[in-house]
Write a structure and sequence with these properties.
The chain is of the alpha+beta class. About 30% of the residues lie in helices and about 10% in strands. The two termini are about 20 Å apart. This is NUDIX domain-containing protein.
């Protein structure tokens, strides 16, 4: 499980919606990158 501190100083999990054509795994990776700034090398 990944928690990050949001702009309101709250601890939360990355979340979002599946875009058309995406798998759940691709969505999870994209949302983690968007919300935390973490990127896979």
């Amino acid at each position: 499980m990944l928690l990050y501190q949001d702009a309101r100083d709250r601890w939360t999990i990355p979340e979002g919606h599946i875009e058309p054509g995406e798998t759940a795994q691709v969505t999870a990776r994209r949302e983690i990158g968007e919300e935390t700034g973490l990127k896979k090398n």
